[in-house]
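Practice problem 4.
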């Protein structure tokens, strides 16, 4: 599966190219009475390094999000023309030797992409004053990207209880204690003493969402009760469809923006330009 930190930055990149509408000129008349209006060139966003070598198709921005306002590329020959260069923090070498060359074009902005909490990201000396914009989950980032909710006056279609034969699932890729996962692993072990917890991609009525560290803006879930109390409550909900259905009442007028694992962040990172 895709690591936790890559799943987070998937949403980040699909934020900002939409501020540059691009409508190609189509000539339906072989003899137009007026010349076509020249279309502005799309700004170029250069992805300097594929994040941890995780690759996708740039056309997904158009396919899945109808975003086509900038030219996304990993072609370094376009460096001197690029309006912005996106650089993923975890891929920066300690000696900074793999950063773009200097001097940079005067119009160009460097965007620092930070997807994981400080606990799981090393602080690299020498990055101060190199970047023009920050792109992360933090609310005070230059480009703050969080899950989008859409509120509608018209109620969404009636919710149908999903047919799932498992009660509780947990998706996890990082169990390294050195990265701050010890607390959630301990809770998982305690909870497993009271209720069956399925680990992996399985259809369940409830999914556990445990971050591996606590930092500002990084975690939004409410504090869980002790494992025994939570287990008893989930078992009770499993027998009460009416109570279970109330957890989906918000979906009557609110919908969450779906996203892919990585692509979404890059598609939108020009919104603040």
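Answer key:
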């Amino acid at each position: 599966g895709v690591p936790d930190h890559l799943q987070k930055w998937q949403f980040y990149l699909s934020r900002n190219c939409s501020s540059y509408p691009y409508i190609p000129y189509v000539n339906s008349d072989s003899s137009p009475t007026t010349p076509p209006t020249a279309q502005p060139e799309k700004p170029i966003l250069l992805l300097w390094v594929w994040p941890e070598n995780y690759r996708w198709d740039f056309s997904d921005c158009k396919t899945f999000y109808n975003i086509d306002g900038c030219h996304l590329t990993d072609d370094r020959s376009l460096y001197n023309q690029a309006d912005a260069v996106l650089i993923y923090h975890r891929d920066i070498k300690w000696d900074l030797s793999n950063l773009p060359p200097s001097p940079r074009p005067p119009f160009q902005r460097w965007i620092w992409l930070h997807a994981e909490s400080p606990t799981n990201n090393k602080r690299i000396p020498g990055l101060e004053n190199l970047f023009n914009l920050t792109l992360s989950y933090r609310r005070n980032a230059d480009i703050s990207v969080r899950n989008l909710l859409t509120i509608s006056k018209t109620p969404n279609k009636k919710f149908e209880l999903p047919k799932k034969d498992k009660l509780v699932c947990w998706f996890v890729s990082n169990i390294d204690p050195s990265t701050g996962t010890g607390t959630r692993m301990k809770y998982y072990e305690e909870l497993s003493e009271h209720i069956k917890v399925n680990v992996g991609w399985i259809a369940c009525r409830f999914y556990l969402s445990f971050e591996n560290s606590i930092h500002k803006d990084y975690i939004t879930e409410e504090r869980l009760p002790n494992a025994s109390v939570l287990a008893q409550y989930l078992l009770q909900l499993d027998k009460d469809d009416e109570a279970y259905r109330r957890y989906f009442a918000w979906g009557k007028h609110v919908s969450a923006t779906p996203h892919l694992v990585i692509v979404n962040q890059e598609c939108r990172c020009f919104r603040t330009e």
